């Protein structure tokens, strides 16, 4: 009975934008473009595509399968597919991972929101290397302001999710994803008009296989995973809202390609400007929060650009967080019988309370910056355990489950939409990669990320 009232997205386009909204996140704006540049440009892109093909896509299709076939949250789905079995742990890991990611992601998103506000106020006019550093330090160390911005972020995400799947997630992603594209393209055009922009393009697009190391291959693999929101039930949950005529393989390919396009476009917006002003392209949040204001403040109309840039980053972060929180909301409404509103409020408060630990430990001079668990502060621990341990384990379990526990006929039936799609070759290819390639690669990544296997 309950399943009949379950919402779905209203169209294929809605499915696409919601899923892309999950994939596109903070990773596209600083992490991916930087990795492209630092690992041999187009050579890294090629490796990334192979990782998407051999690991990302098979896991994404599998998650969509689990979600749409059962029309349930990640724990409910596993319970339905294999009642009373340990496979439920895929769901349990997913829920834990969703919390861990939310604890630190809301904190970083809080800094982004704060930077939108600061850019609008004009705080960055005349900024220097020192003042830019100092501003970022103050924004991170706080202690009050990062917590307040983290709560604002959670309030925005909660308000959208309370509206529901169609009126909340669908409406917001359908409106904001095109806006995000438009904003990136505006930033790109401006960046390309800068004198000396070709150096930045060279950084991004040179093909240099000699810069590829084993480490960069592993990085590409891990990135493909985090970028496409895999291994923790997000795509199971969104898949459970997909329309019944959606071509799951096709959607996966389109989302992976569009997500990569966003990363490349973000790189084009960033690096020409960074090089035009003779700055070093740094990795991590430093690039986003310290370098970008500095670079854009030197461009005519740079402040408007800065506002647009941080708005687009906050859109990316917000739509990604919606998909993580929705994993929890679907679980609490369906398995625990909470109303949607109660589930959202309860989870938002819980995430805010524990998330404070991330906000107060993000920097070594933060109030809790010196507390270490297994040698890591809270912020780093949440990040490390979720991205390096739980997501690859989740992905591996999903690959093994789908490849060895589900009958191929059932898979064929669902992926071909009950025989209405004539895509046997794609299903066969998917099944082969899923069984023989993805699990092996995932084991290697996992052992490496926890330090057992050293390259
Ligand atoms: N894909 C998002 C990003 O690139 C992060 C994310 C991970 C979202 C896991 C949902 C689930 O930032």
TrEMBL record:
SUPFAM superfamilies: SNF-like. It is a multi-pass membrane protein. It is found in: Membrane. The keyword Membrane applies. The chain crosses the membrane at residues 12-30, 42-66, 87-114, 134-163, 175-197, 217-239, 260-279, 299-332, 344-362, 389-406, 427-453. CDD domains: SLC6sbd_Tyt1-Like. Pfam families: SNF. GO terms for cellular component: membrane. Its main location: membrane. The keyword Cell membrane does not apply. One of its GO terms (molecular function) is symporter activity. Keywords: Membrane, Symport, Transmembrane, Transmembrane helix, Transport. PROSITE patterns: NA_NEUROTRAN_SYMP_1, NA_NEUROTRAN_SYMP_3. Belongs to the sodium:neurotransmitter symporter (SNF) (TC 2.A.22) family. This is Transporter. It comes from Clostridium magnum DSM 2767.
